[in-house]
Amino acid sequence: MATYIVRISPNNTRAVKDFENFQTEIQEHGTATWDKDAKNRIRAGHTLGFITGPTVNPTVTFYRVTTELSTNNRNSTWDTEIYTTSQAVQHDINTRQVIVLTQQGSSEQSFWDYKTSCNYKTRYMPRGTTKAKVHVQCP
Asked: 90: helix, coil or strand?
């Protein structure tokens, strides 16, 4: 299995709003939808970690992917044009398929501790949804 990580930058108001909606949905229902990475590589059984909070002290929360859905299941409130200008290659985000994540077995830790345990450089921060070096197991 694989783990992916994505930064929800406090400077990106659209990403923050989408993540707030995700948090509300997962707290109310135990599951919530999100979109896959740019190449639609995330699969059921994989783990997705959201890096949130201020740059000086971010946390990463990992969720297990339970289900994959088509592009027809994209949330109508999600951005339809672009997520970040920091990625080298721009792509049509409407081609991103949808995944369902579960709150069951989710885990949270300091992103700095996670980076240290995975041998990332101190200044590392992913740009977009990125496959992580080390798999984090969610029950």
From this structure: coil
The most distant pair of C-alpha atoms in the chain lies apart, rounded to whole Å, by: 39
Amino acid in position 103: Q
Model pLDDT for residues 104-117, shown as the tens digit of each residue: 999 999 999 999 98
In 12-114, where do the E strands start and end? 31-35, 47-52, 59-69, 98-110
- Pick the closest to residue 44 from 88, 91, 4 (CA basis): 4
Instruction: Assess if residue 101 is contained within a domain.
Output: yes
Q: Answer yes or no: is 137 within a domain.
A: no
Q: How many domains does the chain have?
A: 1
* Domain with 113 in it: 3-131
- Confidence tier at 5 by pLDDT (50, 70, 90): very high
Across the strands, what pairs with 64?
47, 102
Beta pairing, strands 130-131 & 3-7:
antiparallel
